[in-house]
Amino acid sequence: MTKQAKSKWNGFSLRPRKEMPEGLWIKCPGCEHLLYKSAIEKNLNVCTECNHHFRIKAATRIKYLTDEGSFQPVLEELTSNDPLGFKFRGTTYKQRIKDDEKKSGQKEAMLIGKAFIKGRGIILAVMEPNFLMGSMGIVVGEKLCAAVDIAMDAKLPLVVVSCSGGARMHEGVVSLGQMAKTSATLAKYDESGGLFISVLTDPTTGGVTASFAMLGDCIIAEPGALVGFAGPRTIAETIKVELPEGFQTSEFMLEHGFVDMIVPRKDMRREIARLIDYCQK
Ligand SMILES: [Zn+2]
Fold first, then answer.
1. Helix residue ranges per DSSP H, 17-118
2. Where are the alpha helices (DSSP H) in 1-92?
3. Domains within the chain, CATH numbers bracketed
4. Residues at Cβ < 5 Å from ligand 1 ion
C-alpha cells in the first residue's frame, strides 16, 4: 500500500471495505433514507419508509404484473435503422443504441407480447426506461401498433405500461409521426370494441403522453409518478408563472380528471384483473 492510500489513523485503509459490496444500499429519492436494496426489491421496488415507487426495468414490471412464466414476447428482434444518420455530443445514435442494449438487456424501449393476469388473457406492452429513456421512435410505434392489431384479432384486452421521456429526438419527425400512427391504430381498436387499459408510471411525458398513454378506456397511474407533456421546469421558464404544488404528479392528474385511478404497485395485478372483468361483463 502506498503512503497516500493510508489514512492518518494507523491501521485504517481508505480502500472500500470488502464486506460492503457496491449496490447493497440505495438512497430513496423520495425520503432520502438509506435503504437495504434487497428489502426494497422484496417490496416490489417500493420504498418501505415513504412509498416511493422506484423506476423498474420492463422485464421486472412484466414479472410483477403477469402470471408466472406466461409472457410470450413478440417482435423481440426489431431494431431502429437510424433514418437520419443522427450524430450528437460526439457520438452517434447507432452507438447509443448499442450502449443501451447492453445497459437494459433489451433491443428497444418497448416489449410486447401475450400474457395472463390472474388467469385473464391480455396483450401487454411495457416500456423500458433504460433504453434511450424509454423514448418512442419507429420501433416503439411499430410494436405498439402490432400489439393493438394482435389484441384486435385475438379479441383480448390491451394493457400498456408507459415509462417514457417522450418522442425520440434522434429520429426527428419520424418519431413524431408515431404519435399519429399509434393514435389512429388505437382509434380502430376502440371502434372494434376492444378494451385498452393504460398504466402510467414515472415518468410518462412528451409524445407518449400526447398520444397513446392518454387514450386508454381506463387510465391508471402509479402513486407519485411524473405525468405530463413538457417538464415542469420548461413550463415554469416559458410562462414565467409559479406552478401549483404537486403539478404533473399522478395525484394532481387524478384531481384534474386526466387519470381515472391511482393504484399502488402491489395492487396493480388485482386492479387490472378486476377492470377486465368489470368491462367485459
Ligand atoms: Zn423513501
1. 37-42, 58-65, 93-104
2. 37-42, 58-65
3. 14-52 (no CATH), 55-280 (3.90.226.10)
4. 28, 30-31, 47, 49-50, 52
Residue-wise pLDDT for 150-206, tens only, equals: 999 999 999 999 999 999 999 999 999 999 999 999 999 999 999 999 999 999 999
pLDDT at 281: 60
What is the Å distance from ligand 1's center to 252 Cα? Answer: 20
Measured CA to CA, the distance from residue 66 to residue 77 in angstroms comes to 22
54 Cα–ligand 1 center, Å:
9
Closest residue by Cα to residue 275 from 141, 106, 53, 120: 120
Tell me what pLDDT residue 234 has: 85
Residue partners of 237: CB distance under 8 A and separation at least 6: none
- C-alpha 49 – ligand 1 centre gap (Å): 5
pLDDT tens digit sequence for 111-129 = 999 999 999 999 999 999 9
Ligand 1: distance of its center to the CA of 44 in Å? 13
CA of 70 to the centre of ligand 1 (A): 32
**Ligand 1 mean position to 135 CA, how many Å?**
26
Residue 267's closest CA among 29, 2, 95, 64? 64
Which residue do the cell numbers 424501449 mark?
109
Q: Within the chain, which residues score under 70 in pLDDT? A: 1-22, 281
How remote is the CA of residue 45 from the centroid of ligand 1, in Å? 11
